[in-house]
Amino acid sequence: MQRICDFDTLTGSLRSLPTRKRVAVVCPGDSHTEYVIRRALEEQTADFLLVDGGLTRWNIGEVCRLYPGRVEVRPAATPDDAARMAVEMVREGHADVLMKGSINTDNLLRAVLDKERGLLERGRVMSHVTAIEAPGYSKLLFATDVAVIPRPTLDQFDAMLRYAVSVCRSLGMAVPRVALLHCTEKVSEKFPHTLSYEELKRRAREGAYGDVFVDGPMDVKTACDPESGELKGIKSPVCGNADVLVFPNIESGNTFYKTMSLFGRARMAGMLCGTTAPVVVASRADTGDSKYTSLALACLASAE
Amino acid sequence: MQRICDFDTLTGSLRSLPTRKRVAVVCPGDSHTEYVIRRALEEQTADFLLVDGGLTRWNIGEVCRLYPGRVEVRPAATPDDAARMAVEMVREGHADVLMKGSINTDNLLRAVLDKERGLLERGRVMSHVTAIEAPGYSKLLFATDVAVIPRPTLDQFDAMLRYAVSVCRSLGMAVPRVALLHCTEKVSEKFPHTLSYEELKRRAREGAYGDVFVDGPMDVKTACDPESGELKGIKSPVCGNADVLVFPNIESGNTFYKTMSLFGRARMAGMLCGTTAPVVVASRADTGDSKYTSLALACLASAE
Predict the structure, then answer these.
(1) CB < 8 Å to B256, chain A
(2) Which residue of A has its CA nearest to B145?
(3) How far is the C-alpha of B142 from the C-alpha of B294, rounded, in Å?
(4) Would you call A196 helix, strand, or coil by DSSP?
(5) Which of A136, A292, B136, B156 is the most buried (most CB within 10 A)?
(6) Which residue is closest to A134 within chain B, CA to CA?
(7) Which of B181, B251, B257, B281 to mutate to test the interface with A (most CBs of A within 10 A)?
């Protein structure tokens, strides 16, 4: 597979998947979700199972007629019902990806995380992977975790790293470069995440994550700006050339995400990993374009 | 005083101070520090006490001759000696601002934090205030703490807020708008800093910080982007219009700082507050321009 370095190539490459993915959408009522569905149908990049929990403000019947065999609609009494039904369909293999429409994220996650009938197997870690296309950076940049895990334990860091690397590979990156983020290069007991980083690097050297470069602790600039590493005299295949940024806590991850979006004028996409199928939980404020890119990311990741 | 909204006005306004500030520089050996000194002398914006700990690679004698009465040079045996001497001179009132040259930050801070002969009075909190000029933001933005306090306690948050507001006032902002940062708007025991935020807001309402708006928790985008707050239906004089961002921990503050500098193409300046005189500790990688702006910020703040 050709390596994907920007969002247009990412969405475009959906067409080259051997089979179209089927996406279960919970409450496809809003206009951004409508945009995603119509675009994927038109570009022949995905099929849909629409679980409608009411309040749909566009003509679902029309797309069923326009694209026969590619859209199935299931009515549900409430958004919570819709979430339960969609999760059930994914569990039974009727859909490859779960996508949030206008349902509240907390309500969707309740169904996803249900111990008996959800999508997270016992003992698995659920985490969020963000893809970022930033002006001035020559390739896609992945960040984790900007949304789900407040203060990762070693096990959670390990899972975050695995998921991000796996997403990179599904986009054609042979040897992902992973930066473990902190304010400085110093490992210290005062900052327990830097001790976890030492263990992650040890595991990486032992081959736990396959063909990969893992380095840190280092700051955002050292990870993404070749000059900064040189000034500091650091020699590492990760410095100035990171594909993945692993953040020490949710506040720093979220700060990066929001700052890149607002001040870095970056395009963002994202998905939940660790579940039996990828889950797209783009927020209601996201543009249709951003939601479509998130869907494409999830479809490519589920094809791995 | 006219409100200062960008760095050029900030450095320019140094000229309008009633008296020129005197700056003690520890180890003025490097070319960036030379640039700052020569520029301030030429523009008549500051006078200098240069405590030279060796390794100076430019002609200090020349500036003494060129600007008679405005430059004093003191030799020191080592950088540590230079730090001790410069701190002593500031303590005795011979200089208004302390500035780091090519000495290591840790070594300088050892002299600054010395319990008997340093610049931090017993029981005071030392914190870092960063000023940011970002393309696309219509005014200066202040962030704290990106460099010193790992995980602020309530007392430390209180001091950080006071220092940042005081710096804003020294730049002519009548009613600073302070955003208390987190990933969401939710106050929760799971995130103890959000509980501190509640107390800070209570104190602000009671007038502890003077004429000021304090609100949060909120994320970077809600604080700095008017649209985000509107989308979420939040009404606050701080949303989308923040002057000060108070970060919950050093990792998130540092991430903001580095991301703004690299991806936000922002200009940065900074200083230490809480000490008996402001301390400029710009890092060696900073440009001469950035160092000069930091010096200007410290001189204006010390004129308060």
Answers:
(1) 255, 259
(2) A183
(3) 12
(4) helix
(5) A292
(6) B263
(7) B251
Summarised one tens digit per residue, pLDDT across range B135-156 is 999 999 999 999 999 999 999 9
Instruction: Using alpha carbons, select from B190, B182, B197, B195 the residue that is nearest to residue B252.
Output: B182
Identify the structural domains of chain A with CATH numbers, from first to last. Answer: 7-123+275-302 (3.40.718.10), 127-267 (3.40.718.10)
Total Cβ atoms within 10 A of residue A207 = 9
Q: How high is the mean pLDDT of chain A? A: 94
Up-side HSE of residue A300: CA atoms within 13 Å toward CB? 31
A chain contacts of residue B219, beta-carbon cutoff 8 Å:
254-255, 258
What sections of chain A are H helices per DSSP?
7-12, 31-42, 60-66, 79-91, 105-112, 154-170, 192-205, 220-224, 226-232, 250-262, 288-302
CA distances B28 to B37, B82, B89, B235, B284, Å, are: 9, 10, 16, 49, 12
Mean pLDDT for B147-168 is 97
pLDDT tens by residue, A121-161 = 999 999 999 999 999 999 999 999 999 999 999 999 999 99
Residue in A181, A191, A264 nearest the CB of B263: A264
What is the predicted ipTM? 0.95
> How far apart, in Å, are the Cα atoms of B238 and each of A261, B198, B226?
19, 15, 10
Answer whether B84's CB lies under 8 Å from B117's CB.
yes
**A302 touches A96 (CB < 8 A):** yes
Residue whose entry in the numeric block shows the structure tokens 């566009």? A58
Residue range A282-301: mean pLDDT, rounded: 89
Mean pLDDT across B62-91? 95
- Angle at the Cα of B163 from the Cα atoms of B201 and B234, rounded to 5 degrees: 35
> Residue B263 is nearest to which of A136, A181, A247, comparing CB atoms?
A136
Hey, what are B166's tokens?
Answer: 């005081």
Query: How close A41 gets to chain B, by Cα (Å)?
Result: 29
Are A147 and B219 within 8 A, CB to CB? Answer: no
